[in-house]
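[Q] Does anyone have a clean structure-token version of this?
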Amino acid sequence: MSVVCLRTVFSVFLAILAMGSFAQQAELDSLKNSLKLRQPDTSLINTLNELGFLSLGDDPIQAGKYLTEALDKSVKAKFPKGEANAYVSLAIIASIHSDYKKAHDYYKRAIAIRSRLGDRKGVANIYNNIGNLHDEQGDFFNAIENFKQALEIYQSLGDKTKMGRAQYNISTVYWRMGNYSKAIENVYAYLAIVDKEGDQEGIATANNLLGNLQVDILKPEKAMSYYQTALKIWIDTKNKEEEANILNNIGSLKDDLGETAMKNGKKSEALQLFNESIQYLENSLKIRQTRNDEAGISEIYNNLGVVKKNLGTLYLKSNDKILAKKYLNEALQSFKQSLTIREKESDKNGIIEVYNGLGDVYRRLKDYKTAFYYTEAYKKLAEEIGSTKFQQSAFKDLAQLNASIGNYKSAYENRLNYDSLKDVRMDESNLLKYQQDEFNFKEGKRQREIDQKQSQITLQQEKLKTERTRRNSLLGGAILLGLLTLLLYNRYRIKNKSNKELTEKNIIIEQERMRSDQLLMNILPASTALELKTTGAAKAKQYDSVSVLFTDFKNFTQIAEKLNAEELVAELDHCFKGFDAITTKYGIEKIKTIGDAYMCAGGIPDVNQTHPMDTVMAALEMVKFLHDYQLPKIKQGQPYFEVRIGIHTGPVVAGVVGTRKFAYDIWGDTVNLAARMESSGEPGKVNISESTFELVKDHFKCIHRGKIDAKNKGQIDMYFVEDATQV
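[A] Here you go.
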């Protein structure tokens, strides 16, 4: 699926500049005329800076000349504000030419000047730009670090709009890193701000990113709902560029859904989804053609090629060779239209995508010679740019092609190469995780340093207070020396009072300590909380067998639209409190909630052998709890939630993440497969995987319901749990 990546603030800025509107041209002409007039140095510098800024998109070379002159005049006139502005714009020009080292140097100089001037908002803006620079280079961790520095300043200034944009930028980086919970957390923070301000375009942007996140965590229904919300806003606001982007996203998502339906043997459903996909993509194409968006046009042609290839495959499976050939030939035409543009722009990644599609189509048409040509070509390009993903894909395609012509030795060799690259890509994935762990460590270390400095300041204040008290006591002693009898009497009274106050303070301290401990126990498992208190850290642990349970409410978005905010929160609170009571009853650890989804796991942090049965029993009780809660609502015609539950048993890694807000979390394929079990289930049913079934089959009546494709796992059997048997 090809989902349009959301633009960061910096990228949007460049796109706006590149459009070259009439208003902008008129402003440029006006500024150029003002250069001919005699004006003070600072005014001239400001004019040159504005000219340079406005020329960035259309003529970076001329922009550089204006800005260099502005910089020289600023230094001579000792005008630091003009100097800083020139450095910022020069940094943008350097980044346009991919000279990231020079861009960083210019930004560093601009920060130093604006810091001296006390221009905190200007400093924050630069941190935001540097974050975009790191993001563009794929340095996600430094990107987040700079966005957070910008966010902290915006928060201290109370600038809600800028705070929202920084949180949006942070969420997009977390999304590309695959840290979906952090991405969702930050995009909802952004959404809260733009919603309060009535910023319709901001709301649409947030919904588009939420749609992309739901696609990645295999929640297509929710993704479609978010996309449709964004589409309506872009249509209402007449933003054609974003309307084209969201139409492309919806078209690509419908293609994905069509592929899933085709794999499950649902021909009519797949056919409808593929045709809807084509309609959305063609509507997006019309908009991009009117805007002469060459890169966007090539992307749509490629996506149309993919959908028509899938339609051809669907008809091949149905033995309708005439329609299969028709759509496969149309796919070739779409791919070649995309290729023409991408070759003109020397877009190697794009060319690889198209070659991959062409090879697939020619293989389906049994033109193996041409299929080999395109597959070998994109394999070579992938090696040139170091893309292990496409190299691995090429080995897989070559294995299929060789098998198709009976060259089984070459097919086997290519399959071995495919498997070896799978290990390389796994290492790359692990490296990303190690980098993320390093980022979390550095962030924690920075917070600890801040806390330590604050403690030192507090200690120093206490020392000064004590010293003042001591001096006052000595002075008072000298004055009251002659009143010894009265002093002795007062001393007795003061001692009693001090003891009483000390006792009261100790009670308060103990109560606060107990409250702190209780809060920690509510956030973390008891053993993990104890380890954290004792050692100051909690080590990640590998568990060989854990039963992970996911719940999700059907049609949550539609029901949420019928309730006000208080009613919605009250409903979720009631349901999740009920789930909390059930998980506590069966000794299952609650992990987290994400929106309307609830996640828990049996067998952690304390290992036990009964966790598969405990988790299934808890799931059945959750279904009953929701059913009992539904009955009065159904009678009264009120909206109600229906729950889907999925369970998978397997290995996980568990540990504590965060420094200021601790969170106990789990990772691994087991978590992903549990989520797949839930999304593939039905309302009011508990859907379990084959591995869970093998552990509980002697204790529950289960019904086999088919297989599901799981990434890197092949096909996995699924079962509905009906009830507990007497054993």
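[Q] Thanks! Anything notable?
[A] The first strand starts at residue 541 and ends at 553.
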